[in-house]
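#structure-requests
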Amino acid sequence: MALKCGIVGLPNVGKSTLFNALSNNKAEAANFPFCTIEPNVGVVSVPDHRLQVLESLVNPQQVIPTTIEFVDIAGLVKGASKGEGLGNKFLANIREVDAIIHVIRCFEDENVVHVAGSVDPVFDKEVIDSELQLKDLESVEKKIVKVQKVAKSGDLEARNVMNVLEAVKSVLESGKNVRSLGHTEEDAEAYSDLMLLTAKPVIYVANVDESSVSSGNSFVDQLKDSIKDEDAEVVIISAAIESQIAELEDAEERQLFLEEYGLTDSGLNKLIKASYSLLNLITYFTAGEKEVRAWTIEKGWKAPKAASVIHTDFEKGFIKAEVIKLADYEKYGSEHGCKEAGKLAIEGKEYVVKDGDIMHFRFNV
């Protein structure tokens, strides 16, 4: 399951600059709104040192990391929910992503215009929020009209759906996002078909100047204070620094460059870690002579469902899973060594896959 994140924000906050740094694609970064007319897509390999460990032990023909897809979506302006600017296109594109990466300008630069005239991270956040909330409210109200007729006839299921929809409508009218409701999966089913924009998990990216990348600044503090009641994370990144890192091909050069700014990790790595944490994702591995490969699944998945990301037949005909822990693989040097030492576990359908498991599935279709 490839993770798909949409990079959003007002025009001129550094979205396209960040996107260019995160991927091999080169979206046009320009000092005017809507320079990204169509969504640009970049597929980025997820860095994972465990792949290198397995590669050194297995010596496979190829190593395949898992990936994350970044979508650079056209800048949003006030009135987008009513079709202003590129509003309709923006809102359609954002429905398709798993998570939102909301880039917010937290730097001063007189050479880069701000659509509102001055740098105000809280204002930027609220403009995007309100436009998404208005669009969601429109969708919810339409569904309420449809469900209301059935609910009035006494249908119990329709009544339950109505109760959930009314709660969603109320929170949107109060200027809050649907994700703040903390609904159970069962309740969320009532509006899952609407693909509500404010129900999606979000990471706020504070795009700062180079001098603020390690400790933040007053703009970052304002942003953090404005989201303290949300289940969301702020990641501090300098898109300008990320652009420079992207030009360095040597890993040692990159590390030295990061150290100059007092950083231990690149913005890309911080974003990926935050995305995995936000969406409750983990990685397991398959290892053989042909390939060593990483697979992304949700935490809590049992073995058959985890196997389905390789092929649906693996889940349908699941028999058992052979599981080795990475520490044991390192200690005993091979699958055979683990088997000899009694460190290869045979697990059934109820086994909950753990992060870092090395797995081999037995199935019959």
